[in-house]
Fold each of these.
Amino acid sequence: MRFIVTKAGCSSERIGNLTGFVKCPNAVIETPTSGLFTQGGSIVHLTADVLARVFTNPQILVMPLTNSIQLETGVKAQNEGVTKFAGLPEHVACVTVNNFYETVPPGHFEPGKIPLWTKHGKKMITADKYMDLMEIFRPDMFLAIADGCMSVNETPKRASKAVERTCKLLNTCIDRYKASKELKNSALVGVVVGAQNQKKCDECIENILKHVDCISGVALEGITDGTDFLKEYTNQYCDIFKKVGDALPKEFFRILEGCWNPAMTLSAIEHGWDIFDGTYAVKLTNMGIALKLSFDVTKENETPYLLDMIDELYKEDFNPILKGCECLTCKKHTRAYIRHLLNTREMLASVLLSIHNLHHFDQMFIHAREHINAGTFNTYKNHITKQCDMLKELPKYRYKGSMNTPEKTNVHINKKKKVDVNSN
Ligand SMILES: [Zn+2]
């Protein structure tokens, strides 16, 4: 796999190409882009056939091990890698450890092991076991196992421990990676953690840079534990995106995990982050929310960029979610019909919302690339940020009562730590 920066913008924003995937030799993935978040190897709410109608080009499938580890036996028996097993061989797999869609309990570490919160409970996993799984999954790229699931407000001491653990785990991954025949076509991604403790974070980056011969990209973890969704735009995160981005070699592709709103996503792009994990669009869908950004920088968007589709307001609204949207949902269905499906808990509600949200979120990246090309990225970023800032003034009740699908599947969250996304 290769990553080439094809255009550098005015700040650190850039356009890049990912190519040379052995299993999909014709795939060219332009960055910045969002991957598609998967659950059990599938795109959440969409079959492969529907997906093919939403995206005609190969996509990065983001596969957290927490929700795909159960595929091990099947993938091993078939012996053709995880994308083939999941029926999505024309796409590119990126395996990660954690699922930043969800909030998990803190702690639970043992020497040399990290906890993996699967839907069947906690599994402790070593770097060696992780690499065994990667040799079975054979993804196009995978993140090194790391201690990366924590909030930006963790103590410097916790961050320091995370760095020590992450460096040790990476060193084991590197040794195994160098010796592995199965992983010769899989790109290894180093993970930076510890941004809460500058000195330790620098150590983490230094450790990654010792292995530039093996590592193709870097991911940033350890600044979100999944609870940051819809949080207001803060400079604290932007400073981290910048500091870590500036410390990394330009030739590495950079992955930012976490459920970031459009303003935060564009701030990360401004500081040179290339690939996002796709959890944002899925989270909106599962909350019954439709994304509706205005991309036209010459026009102010005076309406909210998120529509709570369960709202009474849409009961007799026979417009599409977004006029002019080219997605399959907006071409055929009205807001009133989607509201009806949500209220009657029909599965089709999530399918239709998912089609729109994934398409529209992708459009945000397409426009970002166009603006980077034209040297106008800053104008675009300000235009989108303004729309996100407006949302703060919306009453909170709009987001209540629609968190249904994801938490149901995660027994551990309900048992061990009750999380209310709406309280953010
Ligand atoms: Zn649409």
Amino acid sequence: LVGCSVQPVGGSGVFEELSLFACSPTDLSELLKEGTKESHDRAENTQFVKDFLKGRIKKELFKRATVALYFTYSALEEEMDRNKDNPVFAPLYFPVELHRREALVKDLKYFYGEGWKEKIQCSEATQHYVDRIHHVGQHEPELLVAHAYTRYMGDLSGGQVLKKVAQRALKLPSTEEGIQFYVFDNVSNAQQFKQLYRARMNALDLDKNTKERIVEEANRAFRFNMQVFDELDEIGRSLTEEAQDGGLPAHDGKGDLRKCPYYADKLGRSWATAELPQACGTRLAALTVLSVF
Ligand code: HEM
């Protein structure tokens, strides 16, 4: 089976579990990987994620994404704390290695200052995701693993790439301020840690039906993430230039952009080739992208 070959790792302690890790198609880790493949492809192909990977993300939008993550991980980690002694989740409780809330608080302090809490709010799509996490944690805790898997395994997989992209695109300091979310100080080897996590998921005592419900819930978690991405994409399109990282000044969104001397001058040659918008406003973002990238 592809993805099942486990390199036995030496040493002692929890990593010894890995040498016992034999993979079978009915293992939860395999069912999740196979059962969420399509969702993963779809998530990778959302506009927001594609733009992010190309470094096309403005600071204001990155800040909003950090806010969404803050509310999501606050809910997730609250529910994981609640279920830390529940056998359906306890083996996957790794607060020191994985929990992101504190890292996100640091990022929000960096972006919004000490009064960060008063300056942020939970978006609609994020609220739906948060509500579902709380429901699961309180009423169907056997499904909590699906939410933890979808986020932390993803973070440990693509995080390093995204960290570099964000650092470069937003010109963030090399001291990693603003991107603490992507830094797992207590995971020295992400690949090994993911194997440990898979082994722990497979050791949960679950019947076939519960495993199927967990896979279904993981696909649901992917959908919540995609809804948050789509919402961010929408916000990105409607941000004024001023909000977009001190770019071009905001415009009132009315009238013909070609009659605005500032833009005609500012956009210069790209103006000639750009598809001219009917009006300013939301389509300014598209024009700025044309002129900046
Ligand atoms: C930026 C676009 C993305 C890229 C390039 C990417 C890339 C990858 C790669 C290469 C792996 C395999 C790592 C391995 O087997 O060790 C992986 C795994 C994973 N990713 Fe992503 N990913 C992206 C977005 C996402 C998103 C948006 C989510 C969910 C919110 C996600 C969740 C996961 C999960 C849960 C796994 C673990 C799969 C498993 O081994 O069971 N990824 N990703």
Amino acid sequence: MEEIQAWEDLSNIPPDPPVMREICNKCKRPAIVCWCSALPPQRLNPRSNIILLQHPAEEKRCLRTAPMLQLGLDEKKFYIFKGKRFPQPRHENLENLLKHPNTILLYPSKTAIDIKELENEFTSYNLVLIDGTWPQAKAIYTASPILHKIKQVKLITTSTSDYIIRTQPTEGCLSTLETAAEALSQLECDPIYRKQLIEPLHMLCKFQLDNGAVTHQSKEFLLKTKTYPKLIGKRLSKLLKTTNEYIEH
Ligand SMILES: [Zn+2]
């Protein structure tokens, strides 16, 4: 009897292998780790535009936040351009955007002013952000002279990143999503961006933690406690120490 049952079970196995993983067609992630349900109920529609200049390596990271930003905002309010320097001939309309008088660049240089101190010269801004690690962002900035002419702003925030999975270069250093959400809330005087845009990130972090991902402490913390140099080697450790000086809290 058991043997017959076993043969029946075998004959019920479909001849084709099962579909490996169902992919969400919105966020392009496997359906079981899709964060789309945490997106704002309706795409947010700020007065200002977000212009993301993305380093090509950023797109390949497994935990990246640009798609969360893209899917959380109205399509007409979000632009993304990829490259190691900007603008290039393939970056349609970018040069125009970058030359616009209401364009501002979020970049923590010595001349950057606190975004809160922008006098309301314009009702809306084109807010340019560089998406990449700090050394990548610096390289993009250096290779793109047009960016040097744009009014530079910085975010003064004391909150530590929610993006706890990906090791942050320094305490208070935010992911691109968190940076854009915070900047929009300050520019538009509306907390909705800060609250709603980062929800997919919370969901992703929770999922990763529930599934055994390690909560990384920031590189700054690890450097202070001297556990990091062993892991990364002397050269990178030295580099991180110098780049920390550029990031203002
Ligand atoms: Zn999805």
Amino acid sequence: MTEAPKVGFVSLGCPKALVDSERILTQLRMDGYEISPDYAGADVVVVNTCGFIDSAKAESLDAIGEALEANGRVIVTGCMGVDEAEIRALHPRVLAVTGPQQYEAVVGEVHRHAPPPAVHDPYIDLVPPQGIKLTPRHYAYLKISEGCNHHCTFCIIPSMRGKLVSRPAGDVLGEAERLVAAGVKELLVISQDTSAYGVDLKYKLDFWDGRPIRTRMKELCAALGSLGAWVRLHYVYPYPHVDEIIPMMADGLILPYLDVPFQHGSPRVLQRMKRPAAAENTLERISRWREICPDLTIRSTFIVGFPGETDEDFDVLLDFLQQAQLDRVGCFTYSPVNGARANDLDGAVPEEIKEERWHRFMQVQAQISRARLRGKVGTTQQVLVDEIGDEAAIARSKADAPEIDGVVLIRDGEHLAPGSLVEVIVEDSDDYDLTARLAG
Ligand code: SF4
């Protein structure tokens, strides 16, 4: 693997500027950068300035000069950034100047001058490839752990990223709180295995705002739900304790959305994949979850054509799909990953059969998704506006994660601002998306 580029960071000024700095640093970390503790080891240095009073300005200009001298590659942001001419008059060599709260702009400049790790690796990265582009400021990925204790035969993450290492709950919640304070409306909880959160720390008692909190999925979800933002859970395996989370979804504390990578419906294939929670009776669990939380959206991913998958296994999978009635589904044909143990399994499925199964799978699921979306026509939904297009606002409902699910087009929403939460009435649907108009 190529080494991650390093960013040096100097943060000056008030608590608001600090929140901005943390928002920028969070984004840079998500984009694969490392934060350098010193100027010398950094590929580029960001100086978040303060321009409140003259002495603060002088301090900011000094800090820029110091970073230029020690490193030479400096990007300026923050309050003083509104006066680019003043900065350039003294320090003409700065690479770029951006203003306060311009997270996207400053991170964009870092990308330009020290490009992020070039390739998105679909086998190891948590964020979808499009996630490499900057997330708009109203949603943010919140990584709660790194690595994984499982040994799925098609996966190389444990050998690349190591065993599960959870971040203590106080740490995660501190970051979440700062993100919400900086304007984030939706927190996307990610990890390789969200249900295993805290196992490595033996659910250690941590502290958040002086209060004790266990480093465990249930407690973390409850605390995140208290922050007033949408909280969406990704990469959840259906262990029994996930049942405890569903009532929080029914109560509106966290979004009624579960991203569960089932990967297959045939127990025989799941065993060959060595999937976690493969022995659980998944269909029964799903129907119990829906009894508790009827609005629950379940998204999942599947692999067809895994070595040894027979026609019968595939029929079991299609039957699973029909019964599970999942809302959002992605499907991949199996392809060997360098270093994965599945490469040694016998029973490779010929490419044309993989393709044929993929098409049949997608047809079945498209019908299911279409029917489930049609059921939403006429309902009122709360949606989060992502951007304003030529003829409509592009938003997402609680059932849609950014980048991977569908969207809600608001026909009369051109005047809305990205990041706003509004109520809409759904008027139409297709296989993936909804069309709506503003309610009231
Ligand atoms: S649970 Fe399986 S697929 Fe997911 S990261 Fe761990 S080993 Fe890989």
